[in-house]
Amino acid sequence: MKVSTRSQVPPFAVMDIVAAANARRAAGQSVLNLCVGEPATGASEVVRERAVQLLAGGDLGYTEALGSPALRQAVAGHYRAWYDVDVDPARVAVTTGSSGGFVLAFLAAFDVGDRVALARPGYPAYTNILRSLGCEVVDLPCGPETRYQPTVEQLEALDAPIDGLVVAGPANPTGTLVDRGALDALAAWCADHGVRLISDEIYHGITYGDAPGAEPGPAGAPTAATALGTGAVVVNSFSKFWAMTGWRLGWLLLPDDLVAPVDALAGNVTLCPPALAQHAGVAAFTEAGYAAAHANVAQYAASRRTVLDRLPDLGWTRVAPADGAFYVYADISSSGLDSRTWCARLLDEAGVALTPGTDFDPVDGHDWVRLSFASSPDVVAEAVDRIADWRTRG
């Protein structure tokens, strides 16, 4: 029987590491998992308590395709509180995680054959979703000279027009921000050239004060919500700042011309996001919900400092600036090993799981690895000790 060519996307190399780590753990061996971008704390108590109440007697039937009115109002209020931006709740589309948001946004904005540019290294699902939808991905190689972020100069130098640009700040795997001036310049260039800007902002709120380009206020990063009127799309999620990964809840902020298409697509593709997660998710926007999330960020900051302070012990002399999110992206080429071999040996010989850079950069990622410090500070500290000791022994 036929298998579609669009489904032939590469698997994540990290899944081999995850499988090996699970096998090691099943055999009774110690494993410290720093390879996945998943907060260790899970959802806050106020969200979990609301979910229990709903399970005991709440209405968990279908909601509107674009999400429950209460949650869409709460998201709009979040933008007033954090960014001083007025967003019409009618422009908010609640999605099945940010992943579902990307699928809906890409389906609504792009046709087969459209060219969409994005930074390399970057989150691999952007590329894989776009290609599965028949779009052409245009790599923008980004290094330390641009702080691993795309620039207007790169867009101007392209040899053919593009239809879309995906930016992320803080970015995965580098953690780097797009500062206010750069984001405004990219948004203006896109508006002038009829290019759809899609801004991944799922790590907003997880930033660090010493990061160049960090914004004042709780978000710590600029938002493209100010560019909705020029056709930009914002993607965000409850998974990172609010540590609600398995709840599968995210949102889009949409320009006027995409509201109806996304509404129609959502109704056909998912019908609606998970009702329990939606109704409980409103509690994330309460004082207690924000407080719990900020407490998590304080832990990430402590773990980040542990890793950065130990870079000489790790032998990592070239790392991407960890402005935000909870990642350190490091060059391990001095080891003489490619990143997949390096990660496999680290797990086998030291019991620490990291992600090979090839997941994020198929061209240069063999020299890089990603460490996630989303685990508890004591786990991160022990993992760093193990890596440093393993390097010394190796």
UniProtKB/TrEMBL annotation:
Signal peptide: none annotated. Keywords: Aminotransferase, Pyridoxal phosphate, Transferase. The keyword Chaperone does not apply. Coiled coil: none annotated. GO terms for biological process: amino acid metabolic process. GO terms for molecular function: pyridoxal phosphate binding; transaminase activity. It is an enzyme of class 2 (transferase). InterPro entries: Aminotransferase_I/II_large (IPR004839), AspAT/PAT-like (IPR050596), NHTrfase_class1_PyrdxlP-BS (IPR004838), PyrdxlP-dep_Trfase (IPR015424), PyrdxlP-dep_Trfase_major (IPR015421). Its EC number is 2.6.1.-. Residues 31-387 form the Aminotransferase class I/classII large domain. It holds the Pfam family Aminotran_1_2. Its cofactor is pyridoxal 5'-phosphate. Belongs to the class-I pyridoxal-phosphate-dependent aminotransferase family. This is Aminotransferase.
